[in-house]
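Reagents: none. Just compute today. Amidophosphoribosyltransferase.
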Amino acid sequence: CGVFGVIGVTDAANFVALGLHALQHRGQEAAGIVTHDPEAGFNSARRMGYVRDNFTSHEVIRTLPGTIGIGHVRYSTSGNKGGTAMRDVQPFFGEFSMGGAAVAHNGNLTNAAQLRKELIERGSIFQSSSDTECIIHLMARSMGRTIPDRMEEALRKVEGAFSVVAMTRTKLIGVRDPLGVRPLVLGRLGDGYVLASETCALDIIGAELMREVEPGEMVVVTGEGVESHRPFRPRPSRFCIFEHVYFSRPDSILGGKSVYETRRQIGVELAKEAPVEADLVCPVPDSGTPAAIGYAAESGIPYGMGIVRNQYMGRTFIEPSEQIRNMGVRLKLNVNRALIRGKRVILVDDSVVRGTTSRKIKEMILDAGAAEVHFRIASPPTAWPCFYGVDTPERDKLLASHMSEEEMCAHLGVDSLRFISLDGLYRAVGEARGRDPERPQYCDACFSGEYPIVPADMVERGFQL
Ligand code: 5GP
Ligand code: SF4
Ligand code: MG
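Predicted 3D structure written out:
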């Protein structure tokens, strides 16, 4: 998901809509905006579908007055996964004795089922199937005197990954979980301030990046400025390494590093680790493009657009139903036959999850008359599900959970298949000495199976670590 918030600007809703539009790649199922105006009070709009289709008309924006606002773009990783229900669309809102607060959350709480059960037993009435709603109920039960106090208390009880943007009538609040699994940045816009999942959402409104909200930090922003709190016991951070590989936009800056440059470097590492003789390096667009550029540069093999993407389709995997996902590949990608014919092609993609994309693409490339097809993947084999806010399928649906690299190669029917090593990936994100096995610098659980936060609800349901 993507989160965004702004304070101290005229017509905040316009900025929130633009920020969410820039974060659309983080969630395409639904979007919502809440604003506050001293006269009109809190107002909200929540809609299914794209930001541009719902939040560009004056009709909607004029119902959202105020100089403070937050927003959320959703894709389901918890709650109803079969597609978003209206009641699960964020931001969520709670009314407390000291006033209202709206909350938008990116990530996934790993003890939400347990908390929900306890809260329901003690009288909470849940409105949605979302893990995020626990935060509101925990805040309602807190004795804290201010909303930020209540939020701190609530967030000390939840486990998992959370980058939260929240607002009261007068305050904008941003929090990252102690491990800082998901991103969140703080920016400046004139006299106002902005919080956003990624820097690309600052760029679109002309805001200036101040800094990242730090892992375990809560920032409370008012007209007076930014206050920093440390609600949690300090721990070494574990940022999601997959944000660098795939999830974030290539024009964003993560941890001071250009995402594009990191991905290009992954391609360079891949070319060193897994060279092959071929005529053409070709990305699976768009997610494989920067790595393919790096692979081509390092190998000296020409780069070409052998696959062309229809820009008007969303990301395949974000469509939750199996049937649509299967159609998706053909609707979205087409082979550039004139370029491919007779060539030995290296295809570079960011990841192999179920393997359906790779299989379809291989077929399309061979149909177009390619002489050989070699896959090079910009992440290690995805063998474990993510419980921290990226929607990977169950373990047995992950190709790499039950197949070796050779078996996957045979299954996909390609001439060769190689993944970047975990160390190679760490080098590409700037860790010169690779992954520290004692204290890994990032979360890489979907590749290593080492979960930095025990997925308590999943363990309870029988998941084997
Ligand atoms: P597959 O067809 O192997 O299931 O999906 C691989 C494609 O889905 C890749 O091209 C990649 O861009 C995209 N993808 C990346 N991350 C994820 C993820 O976490 N889950 C899923 N299902 N697909 C992803
Ligand atoms: Fe990121 Fe993978 Fe960790 Fe999930 S399991 S937070 S996708 S690195
Ligand atoms: Mg892709």
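The chain has two domains: 2-237, 260-430.
Action item: order primers for follow-up constructs.
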